[in-house]
Amino acid sequence: METLYTTQTPEVTTTSKADSKYIALVEKIYNAENKPQENKGTVASLLWSSFSKMSKTRNTWKRATFKTLLIHMHTQGCYAVLRSPLFIQVLVNISTFGLKMVRPIEKWQRPSFEPEEQLEDLIDHCFAKYPTPVFLISSFYESSLRHQLWYVQLGSGKSVKSLIGLPDKFTSKMMHEFRNTPKGFSVSEAIVHAQALGYGASQQIAIELTRSKLAQIEGNIPFWTRVIQFFSVQKQVTHWELYKALEYLEVRIQRDRRFTMKGRTLEALLNQSHAWYIEMQKMRNEANYLSWFPSGIKEMHKEVEKDGKKVIYIAKELLTSEELYQEGHDMNHCVADYIDDCYAMDTSIFSLRKQEGDTIKKLATIEINPRTLEVLQAEGNCNTPLSVEATMAFNLWTDLLGINEKVIVSNQDQPIPQNPPQQVPIEQREVVEYANYRQRPPAHINDSDIDVSTIIRIILIIIKIIIVLSRLGN
User: Fold this and answer.
1) Quick check: is 243 in a domain?
2) Cβ-contact 334, 313 below 8 angstroms
3) Is residue 397 part of a domain?
4) Beta bridge partners of 316
């Protein structure tokens, strides 16, 4: 059976830039006493927090691999990666499999200025001795070690058949389709997509099933596998028909665990789901209840480890008037005023939450333009600025969405500057989030020189001041 760990410790080599403050900081934290630390929004605290979760007595190679990654990414100029909590977590996940690397980290060369491309190429360099599905790289942005191990195993030459955790009755054709799933799919979506094609679905039906709630439903795997098989053999089904049918099936299987798909036809199922939907609409109308379709903006269900405990950060789209009223009541603001806008699909409201065990705490309410993905508002309780924790969760979500605009960041109710002052010591510098990854990365962390564009801006400001003063003098 394939395991995550072996026992041999890799050799850690440092770079020739021994005078780098960042490398010195990494060395200092690596050698310091290990104790729980919290990320407080600075580069140093982010490193302290990451190293504090790795034992100095067990699996010490993980710390060593993480240290090597940080130093090498720094020498390669991957500064946007080193300033992002999300990207740092990717490096932590890579370090988990430090003993299974097929090439030395030090041999990797930065392929571009874009942090996602840098990490994608780094993962391929470290683990892909053989062609590996690119979509599986997304697993390193998530918390599933099993899915990350799948990438490592396939990269080392193992077959899809050897992977542990795939659904039962995953045929050879499904395995072939799974391996050839294109980039942009999550692992759960890739499984549904492969199952649909394996059961004979057309590409159109397979995509409809993949983008439906089937990829998010958990539990009762045999029943939902049968549902995938049922729709895969249909010649045509619209997105709206599939949406209503799955909603109906989810309610039916919750009410009656003996409910099956055996002997059902598409026509009968669509008639039943339509009748159920009309009945639900009547009940909602009687209660002055409004609901609307999902915007298509991806929700978040991100599991992280905090202080040794599992925490799940959730971004949930609110799709009914009842949910908006409840959100406004819980967060002490007037989000219920947006019911008509949501119903008209002019705006989308999301609730940002934290789940620890059975306890769910609401962190913020987010308004997004569904057409442009522009973040219109992000408010905490009583319309206060986002807390540090809410900011972190918000940035995880916007990174997931790939929203091309400046991310809202706060630290103790004060905005964190996008470009920290050069004279501030590295231990006190702010962690910077970059949503627009098409931009060239920021300047070297230790670079104290002022670039040409900054000088030009200063000169223009001085000229404007002189013009204003001259006019006042006249």
Assistant:
1) no
2) no
3) yes
4) 351
- CB–CB of 62/91 below 8 Å? no
Cα(63)–Cα(363) distance, integer angstroms: 32
Residue 80 to residue 74: CA distance in whole angstroms: 10
pTM > 0.85: no
In a domain, 13, yes or no: no
C-alpha distances (whole Å) from 4 to each of 7, 95, 98, 99, 153 are: 11, 11, 10, 9, 10
For residue 378, with 0-12 CB atoms within 10 Å meaning exposed, 13-18 middle and 19 or more buried, which class applies? buried
Residues in the chain: 474
How far apart are alpha carbons 131 and 121 in whole angstroms? 13
313 vs 315: CA distance, rounded Å: 7
| DSSP string for 301-356 | EEEEEETTEEEEEEEEE--BHHHHHHHHHHHTS-GGGGHHHHHTTS-EEEEEEEEE
CA dihedral over 175, 176, 180, 181, signed as positive or negative: negative
Q: How far apart are CA 65 and CA 100, in angstroms?
A: 11
Instruction: Report the domain count for the chain.
Output: 1
Structural domain boundaries enclosing 304:
300-401
What is the token pair recorded at 128? 């892909």
Query: pLDDT at position 55, please?
Result: 87
Q: Is 386 a domain residue? A: yes
CA–CA gap between residue 317 and residue 206 (Å, rounded): 25
Average pLDDT in the 255-260 region?
Answer: 89
CA distance 219 to 216: 10
Nearest to 109, CA basis, from 126, 122, 123: 122
Query: Which residues contact residue 95 at a Cβ distance below 8 angstroms, ignoring those fewer than 6 apart?
Result: 54, 62, 63, 65, 66, 69
CB atoms within 10 A of CB 151: 24
The full DSSP string for 246-300 is HHHHHHHHHH-TT---TT--HHHHHHHHHHHHHHHHHHHHHTT--B----S---E
Cα 227 to Cα 432: distance, rounded to the nearest angstrom: 45
DSSP-derived letter for residue 411 is B
The residues near 232 (Cβ < 8 Å, ≥ 6 apart) are 195, 196, 197, 199, 200, 201, 205, 206, 209
Rounded to an integer, the average pLDDT of 338-365 is 91
Both tokens of residue 361? Answer: 């705490």
One-letter amino acid of 305: E
Q: What is residue 364's DSSP assignment? A: E
What are the residues whose beta carbons fall under 8 Å from the beta carbon of 317, sequence distance 6 or more? 294, 295, 297, 299, 348, 349, 350
pLDDT tens readout for residues 374-427:
899 999 988 889 999 999 999 989 888 877 544 444 333 333 334 433 433 433
CB 88 within 8 Å of CB 67: no
